[in-house]
Amino acid sequence: MSSQLQRELNKIKNKIKEVLRIEHPYIFDIDLDSNLYFNAVIKNVIDITSLLNDQKVRVLDIGCGKGHIACLLSSLGHDVSAIDIEISRGEQLNIEKPRWQEDLWDKLNGEGYKVNFSFYDGVNIPFPARTFDVVIAYAVIEHVEKNVLDKWLREVRKVLKLQGLFFVFDCPNYYSYSEYLARKIGLPHHDTLYKKDKIVSLLNRVHFNVEKAEYSDPLVRFLPSKLQALINLLSPILVAIEKALVKTPFRYIAHNIKLVATAQGKLDTTAHNKGVKKSFLINFGASHILYLLVASNLFMYKR
C-alpha cells in the first residue's frame, strides 16, 4: 500500500502546485515538498486505514486546506467529505485571498477524485448527527479559537457515529523545542500549543475515549528551499532517526502530538485521569531537563 500511496500523493502534489502557480506564481514550495512531511502523511493514512480493517467508510476531513489528504483517502475508495473556512492562509502558503481553495478543489476532483468539498464557519459542522465513521483533524486544533474549542469538539462528536474514530495529527506540542527556537529567533511558529494531557482531558470531557496519544515528528520538517533540498536528500536516514527518537525521552520535546479517540456515551474517566497525572509528571520533568539543554546551547550560539 505504501508505494501505491506514494504514487498517488505525488500525483496530487504536482496537480496542487500546477494550479496554485497560475494565480500565485510566487509559490514554489509547499509542505508536500518536504520528504519528512510527505512520508508522515503516508504513514498517518496507513495508520487510519489499518484501524478500518479494509472497510470502505464515510470520512470527514476538517480543515482540509489544499485537500491532499481527503483526495488520498478518496483514492482508496472511501466516501470523503472535506471542509475548511473561507479565509484560510493555507499551511506554508500565506495566501490572503478568500476561498482560494475552491478552484484547487474543483481541479483535483477533475482528476478523478470524488471528494465533497465545502466551506464552513469554523465551528458549526454542517452535517447531521452520526454521519461519519471517521473524522480527521490534521494540523487544525491549534487554529480553533480557545473560546469555541469545546463547542467545536462537541460538533465533531455529534457528526461521528458511536464508536467512530477521531484522528488528530500535527497538533503542536507545548514543550516542542522547534517551536521554542522559532519563537526565539523570529521564525514562523504557532501561537497556540498544547500539552498531551490537556488534549486528552478536553476529549474526555466531550465523551471521547482516547485510545492512543503519542508524540511525533521530533525533527524539523520545513526549512528554506536550499536547506530543504539537503534535508530531503538525507530523508531516508532522518526517517530512521525519527523512529529511534520517539522511543527516547527526546519525544517529550518533539514538534507534534497525534492521537486517536473513539466516540462514546458518558465516560467514567477516573482511572484514565490517574494515568494522565502520572504521564504529566513524567513529561514535565523530562521536557524541562531537555529544555535546559536546548536553551544553554542557544545561549552559547548567541555568544
Along the chain, the helix and strand elements come as: HHEHEHEEHEHHEHHEH
| Class computed from helices, strands and strand pairing | alpha/beta
Terminal CA distance: 49 Å
Mean pLDDT: 87
Give me the side-by-side strand order of the main sheet: 3-2-1-4-5-7-6
Rg on CA atoms, Å:
19 Å
Largest sheet, in brief, is: 7 strands, mixed
Number of DSSP helical runs? 10
In one word, what is the shape?
globular
β-strand amount? 15-25%
Low-pLDDT runs: 267-280, 293-303
Number of strands: 7
| Helix share, percent | 40-55%
What secondary-structure arrangement, pairings included, does this model have?
Elements: H1 2-23, H2 35-50, E1 58-62, H3 68-75, E2 79-84, H4 101-110, E3 115-119, E4 132-138, H5 146-159, E5 160-172, H6 177-185, H7 196-205, E6 208-216, H8 225-233, H9 235-245, E7 256-263, H10 270-302
What this model shows, in words?
The protein is of the alpha/beta class and 303 residues long. Helix content is 47%, strand content 17%. It contains 10 helices and 7 strands. The protein has helices at residues 2-23, 35-50, 68-75, 101-110, 146-159, 177-185, 196-205, 225-233, 235-245, 270-302; strands at residues 58-62, 79-84, 115-119, 132-138, 160-172, 208-216, 256-263. It has a 7-stranded mixed sheet, with helices on both faces. α3 links the parallel β1 (58-62) and β2. α1 packs across α2. The longest helix is centred in the last third of the chain and has 33 residues, at 270-302. It is globular, with a radius of gyration of 19 Å. The relative contact order is 0.12. Residues 267-280 and 293-303 have low confidence and may be disordered.
